[in-house]
Amino acid sequence: MEATKGLGILRSQRAQKNVLLAFIYKGGSILVSLLLISIIIKFLDKENYGVWLTLSSIIGWLGFFDIGLGNGLRNKLSISLANNDREKGMQYVSTAYASLAIIMGSLFLLFVIINSFLNWQKILNTNIVSESILTRCALLVFFSFGLKFVLDLISVIVTASQRSALAGLINFLTNVTVLLLTFVLTKLSQPSLFNFVALTTLSPIAVLLLANFFLFYKDSMYSSLRPKVSHIRSYLVKDLFGLGLQFFVIQVMVIIIFSTHNIMISQIFSPAEVTPYNIAFRYFSVVTMVFSIILTPYWPAFTEAHVRHDNQWISGSVRKLIYVWLLSVLGTVIMLVFSREVYRLWLGPEVTVPFSVSAGMAIFVTISNWNSIFATYINSISKIRLQLFNSILTGIVTIPLSYYLSKYTSLGLSGIIIGTSICLLFGSVWAPIQYRKLITNKAKGIWNK
Description:
The protein is an all-alpha fold. The chain has one domain (about 1-449). The protein has 18 helices and no strands. Helix 1 crosses helix 2. The model has no long low-confidence stretch (mean pLDDT about 85).
C-alpha cells in the first residue's frame, strides 16, 4: 500500500512538472502562432491564405493513415516501460518506425500518380492560383506531411515515457523556426503561395530530424529505445495495428467531423469565408490547447496506474481535471465576451468574424474539453470499442446536420460548428458512464472492450 501511494505521488509530481514545462512551451507556441497568422495574411492576402488552409486540411488527412499506429505505440510502449521491459520497448519503436515509413512511402507513390489527374482549382473552388502551382503545392505538402508523420513518432515516444513536455519543446522550436523563416521570406520574396508552402512544410522536417538524432543518440534515456532494423518484429505489427486499427477508425471519423469544415465552407460560401472561421477556431483553440497541455501527461500516467491497479489515484486525478474544466468554461465565456476587441487588436479591421461564429466555437470548445477528460482515461487503457461505435455514428450524422444548419437556416457560417457541437453531445453522456463503470470494476460487455 505504501509503495503504491509512493508511486502515485511520484506519478503526480511527474505530471505536474510536465504540465508546468508544457505551459511554457505551449504558451510560446501560441504566441508564435498568433504572430505567424498576422504575418501570413499580410503576405498572402485573405483568399490565398484560405486556399492554403483548405489544401493543408485536405492533405492533413494523410496523418490519420498511420492506421492509429501512433496511439497504439503510445499505449504499448507505456506498458513496456511500466514493466521495465526496455527490450520490448525498442522492438515496438523499431517496428512502428518501419511500418509507418512503409505506409507513408506507399501513399506518396500512389498520390504522385493520382495528383496529375486532380483539378485543384475545382477542388479548392478558386482561380486566383494557377493549376500548375496548386499541383506542385499539393505534391510538396503531401511529401513533407508524410515524412513529418514518421519523424514525429519521437513525440509519441517521449509522451509514453511521461516526458510529454519534450514534445511541447519540439513543437515550440518548430513554430519558432517557421516564424523566423516566414518573416525572412516576406522581406526577400514577393507574395508567393508556393514559396510559403515550401517553407512551412519543409522547415518542421529539419527540426524533427535534429530531435530524433539528439534524443536517440545523445540522451541515455532514449538510446536504449533507438529504432534498429535488427529489432523490427513482424509479429508486433499485429499488436500495434490490432489496437491501432480501432484508433484509426476513430481518427477517420475525427477527420470527417473536423477537417471537412473548411471544404464545406469553401463550397457553400467561398474560400474567403474559411479565414474568419479559422480565426475564431484558432482564438478559442487557446482554451483547448491549455486543456490539452494539462491532459497530455495523464494518458501515459493513467496507463501506468492501470497496470499497477492504482484506481484511487486515477479517480482522484479525474476529479481534479473536472475542476480544471470548470475553470476553462469560465475562461471561455470571458474570451467570448471580449472576442471582437481581441480580433481587432490582433488582426486589425481587415478581417471581421461574426459573433455567432465565436459563440459557436465557445460552445464547441466547452463540450470538446469535457469529452476529452474521459476519453483520455478510456484511450489510455484501450477500452475504446464504445468510442469506436460512437465516433462512426457521429461522423455519419455531423456532415448532413452541419450542412443543413449552415445552408438552410439563419445560422449561416456558425451552423457548421453548431452542428458538430450537437453531435459531440453523444460522447458527453456515455463517456462519463463508461469511466465510472471501469474505475469501479463494474464494466461488462461493450463497456469493458
